[in-house]
Design goal:
The chain is an alpha+beta fold. It folds into three domains: 5-105, no CATH class; 108-221, Sandwich (Jelly Rolls); 232-303, Phage tail protein beta-alpha-beta fold (3-Layer(bab) Sandwich), CATH 3.55.50.30. The chain contains seven helices and 16 strands. The chain has helices at 5-19, 25-37, 39-54, 61-68, 73-85, 241-249, 276-286; strands at 108-110, 116-119, 124-128, 132-136, 141-153, 156-160, 164-177, 182-195, 201-202, 207-211, 220-221, 233-240, 255-258, 266-272, 289-295, 298-303. A hairpin with a 5-residue loop joins strand 8 (182-195) and strand 9. It starts with a helix and ends with a strand.
Length: 305
């Protein structure tokens, strides 16, 4: 696979838009901007066109959902999975262990812009952030497949990520899966980190760190935004505008861009995640920027003229 799941989501969005009818001139311009922005976008678009043309020759349930479901989450997810797998792999859609994007078939998922709470019985609660996916086994193992979770538990649980295993005891811990690393923030309790090829280590309380397949970062104090998403907030404390928009973009469908001329501006404040459009409007009031919208799904923050 030579494009990310996020780009796959964007390609699916444009395919669904075009299947509804001819794009308006503004939509056509936004689509062209998306295609030209990165070669990864062109690869994803060319691939989804090939996949879409082959769907009618397949009889699997996944292909049927992609073709015949109404414009809904089920159709969007079916198309996204087929885009990643390739149309010819649809007949094996149920074989999770051989699925290169298992998050689409996870036990629990949260769509872009939404959060979800999962009861772990008397033992605690698991919260999923935007665009997250996890498997929860009866023996207390939680597999984080994509995105970010907040575990609050009085009992022992294990959290498996792509880079290692976290053994918790009565802990409250935030875990975020990046493409090449895992980020952890420990609020309370006991957590043992078992990273690949390294001796187990206890994590310090009220600290956060990241670890990859080859290294573990130094622990540092929790930042202002650690776990704030669980309360529906995005907290910035002298955060670069570019980083702020990257974070806000996780909660919106489509592309949220930041012009390099304003990326180094600093922003502080507490913002409600459930209204990203209002956050963008507030940026124009508090900073010397303007928000340029080609469509709702293609937005650029640039310097005010």
């Amino acid at each position: 696979m030579d494009f990310s799941a996020q780009v796959a989501e964007q390609a699916v969005h444009w395919l669904l838009e075009m299947q509804q009818g001819q794009l308006s001139p503004r939509q056509q311009q936004a689509w062209q901007h998306w295609i030209d922005a990165h070669s990864e976008h062109r690869r994803a678009w060319d691939h989804i066109q090939r996949v879409n043309s082959r769907l009618r020759g397949l009889s699997s349930p996944l292909a049927h959902a992609a073709l015949n479901a109404p414009k809904s989450g089920s159709r969007r997810q079916a198309l996204k999975l087929l885009l990643i797998l390739g149309a010819g792999s649809a007949v094996t859609w149920g074989m999770r262990e051989h699925n290169p994007l298992p998050s689409l078939l996870a036990d629990y998922r949260s769509p872009v812009g939404q959060r979800r709470k999962i009861s772990l019985g008397a033992g605690g609660q698991l919260q999923l952030n935007t665009a997250s996916a996890a498997d929860v086994r009866g023996d207390g193992l939680i597999r984080l497949l994509e995105g970010e979770v907040l575990l609050t538990a009085t009992q022992s649980f294990e959290v498996q990520t792509a880079q290692g295993l976290l053994k918790t005891q009565g802990a409250r811990i935030n875990v975020r899966q990046f493409a090449d690393r895992t980020q952890i923030a420990l609020f309370e309790g006991r957590v043992e980190l078992n990273a690949q090829g390294r001796a187990p280590m206890l994590l310090p309380v009220a600290r956060q760190l990241s670890f990859s397949a080859t290294s573990i970062s130094d622990a540092k104090p929790l930042d202002a935004n650690s776990g704030a998403w669980a309360d529906g907030m995005l907290v910035a404390a002298h955060m670069r505008l570019g980083d702020f928009l990257d974070e806000l973009g996780r909660y919106r469908r489509g592309q949220l861009n930041c012009d390099a001329k304003v990326a180094e501006l600093l922003i502080s404040g507490t913002y409600p995640l459930d209204d990203s459009e209002r956050i963008l409007d507030l940026l124009e009031i508090s900073l010397p920027v303007r928000v340029k919208r080609f469509t709702r799904y293609w937005v650029t923050v640039e310097a005010r003229a």
